[in-house]
Design a protein that fits this description.
The protein is mainly beta. The protein is 7% helix and 44% strand. β15 and β16 form a beta hairpin.
């Protein structure tokens, strides 16, 4: 059965149903958008006396050194304890039991999604005394989990050379630093691959809320907090639990305030005065990078409410060397004597001296030369040169402003909440096309810079509830959005007036995309005039998720669900041919006229086409559902088994206009009594794919 809905996804689904005696079933799928979940870490350990005997009933207190938030747990009959759902930060662990000296470990760093083992040895009580350990390091390799991961803290990210280098290219995003992590590579599209996986097998989140695009299943690369607003970035390569939907996962944790005020200001500067000159340019392109900002955080109410905020601005008034092949002044006047081939009229009559009279030059061709082709740059090349004869240090400035605000509040010892808002506005002016490669342009300098105003935002809130010492609940909600316009500096209606074209654009000005389209003139050997229209991309994701953790002896059981509402709007289908594409080559007119540029002057293309455009091409919405269940089973003190199942369901996106579908060659239908193979349709989503998650970890013998 087929529906009239569309999807930008492959439709691959994974269903994992977790069968555990106490909890219901759940969920996993390797799909285009891996679903992120909790960002909390946990401490585990065993309490013993000097003889090695376990100490059941020992009280274990875990205190966040930044906020003074404290959680407690009792060691079970095996002397083991587990404290879960802890915010990343620095902690102090205290162990107390009757008849034993108090044992304290301080300055323990807990990262996002990390399990840290802290064992305690408590001497017998001979006198009032406390055993405090503050310098002993935590084991660098966790033996409690089986996944492979790497974490970089905020300070490490700031100090990376690539962090400063990315600002010089116009990006203040920490996305570029991911390539410094083991197993992370970047592809030709600027997207990352972790441990060899495809980008649609990756889960990327900030504070547990996904930042994957609803349209192309790739991370929204600029939607990261400022470097000074990041506490850490964790890359998990393989063996993720059923709680996480992607094969690989990138988790970013925003920085929070504490009981101590801290802050600062910064300025990063780069100047082209120290750069070398390009071979084709007589001057050095301008590049003056100023990256500046401020950050600060502290208590609003001691031990209860905390804030952290930051601002970062980037100003990059740079230039790029633009080299184009444009018609020389002689060619514009019909003097084609530079070509050795005889130039002929359409009836085969030769033009004496390869000179086309002004009366034979097509008026539209003359207008195109005037308004779409810039004249050659003086002294850039010999007077009659027809290659590399236009050179300009073309302005391609970039600027951005972004800010982050986060507030944390300890309601009680069993209730904590936080909220964060991130917003970024980025203005990117490129060469006369939506490209960064000066050798592959589809627009001339007279079109001006191609502008890309971009907005991203993320709103996140979370509530952590200790129901009782054995049951904890975590709820998160988030809304992320992305808006990108792409447009030339010159309006298509203006080009229509200049060239005297039929006013197609003015009849449909209500649609973005028809506003800045230009006719695509392709003359062999010369720069294209354009053909790239404006477009708009808008995506948003509303996400709600909940996780329940149950501590049951040797088992740590988690179940949870994730719901998303996604929207995706995209305009620009065949916009490049809204005003037509006109080819001037030797394939058709060459044998008669003798030269593509001569055919252009005479107004005789070898081929041409024009498109009827439907707007928008995608205005879709969809939903996604996920449930999971998993268990971390401490079989022995040295063996831990992690297992679970996850189910995800991604119904096909529904397009409000029904403009987009897929061709299904194996689907048969009957048209006027005739059996026709193939159909334009989209299959409904499947519920039958299952994927389990299983791993084990073994601690080495002491």
């Amino acid at each position: 059965m087929f529906s009239k809905t569309i999807s930008q996804k492959s439709g691959s689904l994974l269903i994992q149903v977790y069968l555990f005696a106490v909890v219901a079933a759940a969920v996993q799928l390797f799909t285009v958008n891996g679903l992120a979940q909790s960002t909390f870490g946990q401490f585990v350990g065993t309490v013993r006396d000097p003889s090695g005997a376990v100490i059941p009933g020992c009280m274990v207190s875990v205190k966040n050194l930044g906020t003074s938030a404290t959680r407690t747990a009792l060691a079970d009959e095996t002397g083991s304890y587990t404290v879960v759902n802890l915010e990343p930060g620095d902690y102090e662990i205290t162990m107390e039991a009757a008849g034993f000296q108090k044992f304290t470990r301080t300055n323990l760093q807990l990262l996002a999604r990390q399990t840290v083992r802290v064992d305690g040895v408590m001497p017998l009580l001979s006198q009032a005394q406390t055993v405090e350990v503050s310098t002993e390091a935590v084991a660098p390799i966790s033996t409690e989990v089986s996944n492979i991961s790497e974490t970089k803290l905020g300070r490490e990210l700031i100090d990376l050379p690539i962090a400063l280098g990315s600002r010089a290219t116009g990006s203040t995003s920490a996305f570029s630093t991911l390539t410094t992590q083991p197993g992370v590579e970047i592809d030709n599209d600027g997207q990352i691959s972790v441990a060899g996986s495809n980008r649609d097998m990756l889960s990327v989140s900030i504070d547990g809320i996904s930042t994957m695009s609803a349209r192309n299943s790739a991370p929204i690369t600029e939607l990261f907090p400022s470097f000074d607003g990041i506490a850490e970035i964790r890359v998990s390569e393989i063996n993720n639990t059923a709680e996480f939907g992607g094969i690989s996962d990138v988790t970013t944790i925003s920085k929070s305030g504490s009981n101590q005020f801290h802050g600062g200001i910064f300025e990063n500067h780069q100047n082209s005065a120290f750069a070398a000159r390009n071979t084709f340019s007589s001057t050095v392109p301008k590049l003056i990078m100023n990256d500046f900002g401020a950050f600060g955080g502290g208590p609003i109410r001691k031990d209860r409410t905390f804030f952290f905020a930051d601002y970062e601005g980037l100003r990059l008034p740079r230039q790029q060397v633009l080299v184009e092949n444009v018609p020389s002044l002689a060619l514009r006047n019909g003097d084609l004597s530079v070509y050795p081939t005889q130039i002929r009229d359409v009836d085969g009559t030769p033009f004496p001296g390869n000179q086309i009279p002004a009366s034979r030059i097509n008026p539209l061709s003359a207008a195109i030369l005037k308004y779409l082709f810039p004249p050659p740059t003086p002294n850039a090349a010999p007077p009659n040169a027809i290659s590399n004869n236009y050179v300009e240090n073309f302005p391609t400035p970039i600027s951005s402003n972004q800010g982050d605000v986060r507030v944390d509040h300890n309601v009680t010892s069993g209730h904590t909440v936080f909220g964060r808002y991130t917003y970024k506005r980025r203005e990117d002016t490129r060469l006369p096309c939506d490209c960064t490669d000066p050798t592959n342009l589809n627009g001339t300098a007279l079109l001006g810079g191609f502008q890309r105003p971009e907005n991203e935002w993320s709103l996140t809130g979370a509530h952590n509830w200790v129901v009782n010492p054995r049951i904890l609940n975590e709820f998160r909600a988030g809304w992320t959005g992305f808006h990108l316009d792409r447009k030339h500096s010159i309006l298509g209606s203006q080009i229509e007036d200049q060239l005297g074209l039929t006013p197609y654009i003015k009849q449909g000005r209500e649609f973005l995309g028809r506003e800045t389209v230009t006719p695509d003139i392709r003359i062999a050997g010369f720069q294209r005039t354009g053909g790239q229209a404006s477009s708009r991309q808008q995506t948003s994701t509303l996400q709600l998720l909940d996780n329940v953790t149950w501590l049951n002896g040797k088992h740590t059981v988690k179940v949870g669900g994730d719901f998303r509402h996604l929207t995706a709007l995209y305009t620009s289908v065949f916009d490049s041919r809204w005003l037509g594409r006109y080819m001037f080559t030797n394939s058709v007119t060459g044998p008669v006229i003798g030269n593509p540029f001569a055919a252009f002057l005479l107004g005789i293309p070898s081929s041409s086409n024009i498109a009827t455009v439907i707007y928008p091409d995608t205005d879709a919405y969809g939903r996604a559902y996920a449930f999971y269940g998993q268990d971390d089973w401490k079989v022995t003190s040295r063996l831990t088994i992690n297992y679970g199942l996850r189910w995800e369901y991604h119904p096909m996106f529904e397009d409000r206009y029904g403009n987009v579908a897929a061709f299904l060659p194996d689907y048969n239908t009957v048209v006027n009594g005739v059996n026709v193979h193939g159909a334009v349709a989209v299959p409904n989503g499947s519920l039958k794919l299952v994927h389990p998650a299983f791993a084990e970890s073994i601690a080495p013998t002491p």
